[in-house]
Amino acid sequence: MAMAMAMAMAMANAAAAAELADVYTTGMWYIDDHGRTAAVPDSLSYIPTPRLFLDDPDISGAKPHLHQLVVFRKAVREWYPYYEGAPGEDLDFMLHQLALNRVRKIPIALYGHRRTLDGFSRRGSRAKGVECDCPRSRRYSRGSCNALLRSARDVAAANFTEEFICEIEW
Fold it and tell me: In angstroms, rounded to a whole number, what is the distance separating the alpha carbons of residues 28 and 30?
């Protein structure tokens, strides 16, 4: 684990030095209840789509691979802080980053996501295809995520293209 973190920090530092983005995210792998791991190849080449701002991924079934290991400039947190505790706070943070900042994917799996049968993301009303009365679903139903996309600055345009994948020489 320590070696993976050292590798992640070296890559993040190289990416930051190249000044290609304000926010960097990496690929991931899953870890199940028994400690078995499974690669998530889509997380390495995932390019976000503006549909993320229109349809709650928990309802649509989309898998937005953009909030695994995230490294960002200090100013990013000042522009839009990360609010812990509400369902979907990680996606909410990343939707704002896609609209407000230059975001790039480092196409290497550096994050292990533990997925358990009774985990928070898989319980009850947050199951795929079921509406819930949680803050994130209310944001989608009120159209505020769509409004966020419409108000996105020009700098966000490359966040929805192949430029999103960051090619850096290590």
Answer: 7
* List of E strands, the chain: 23-31, 37-39, 70-72, 103-114
Looking at every residue in the chain, the average pLDDT score rounds to 77
Tokens of 78: 């000042």
CA atoms within 13 A on the CB side of 107: 14
The SS3 assignment for 99 reads helix
Note every long-range contact of 10-17, with CB atoms under 8 Å and residues 24 or more positions apart, other chains counting: 10/170, 11/106, 11/108, 11/110, 11/168, 11/170, 12/71, 12/106, 14/168, 14/169, 14/170, 15/71, 15/104, 15/106, 15/166, 15/168, 16/71, 16/73
Distance of CA 114 to the CA centre of its chain: 16
Q: For 46-60, what is each residue's pLDDT tens digit? A: 888 888 888 888 777
* 146 HSE (CA, 13 A, CB side): 9
- pTM above threshold 0.90: no
Q: How far apart are CA 82 and CA 160, in angstroms?
A: 22
